[in-house]
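Message: Just now I want nothing more than another pair of eyes on a protein record. I am handing you a single protein, as its sequence and its fold in token form. As I understand it, each token names a local backbone shape. Take your time, and here it is.
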Amino acid sequence: MTWVKICGMTNLEDALVAVEAGADAVGFVFYEKSPRYVSVETAREIVAKLPKKVEKVGVFVDEPVERANTILQQVGLTTAQVYSKSIGEWLAWHLGSERKLMVAVPGSDLNGDLLITFGSAAKPLSAIVVDSGSGNRPGGTGERFDWEGAKIGIWGLEEELPVVVAGGLSPENVHEAIKILRPWGVDVASGVEASPGKKDREKVRAFVRAVREMDRKTS
């Protein structure tokens, strides 16, 4: 089944709705410029009340590895999802950590061999997140990248590593993304919101339901 992450959690109610809907993971954004930013204290309170089976992902943008690692430990997160220019430092951290690491890259960057960029340390990564962001807006844009233009690159990556697709997904188009890109997982934030930082429970349920319906069609 397609791995599903609902990102941008800022309150317990939204996180529990995602869990109830059947999401595999929930995400917490520790990037202060994001409208979905959450404090360490709030995230810790939410995580403490979530089922153990649900993956808890911390999203970091150019955060120093040591500080991010402290947040991961304090909150009780299982995974780091990073938007960073210092990928080598994160890969080195990952080799000595029990936590999972997901590295995010813009869909527009799939014209090169990312595995060569990451080197042999890429093999143990949990996933590569292909997002629609750029240097100025690393993620959470609410816009989709060029799925048709990126599909060959994503298929190539999938032969080596799980790929999670993000950026501009919604209950209405996630089936199309899965059909075109055939990703291991999907990641949504703004596409299931009532307002920035606040989820729409019906959209969350509809998103997970749409993914599972596509899974049944392609199984």
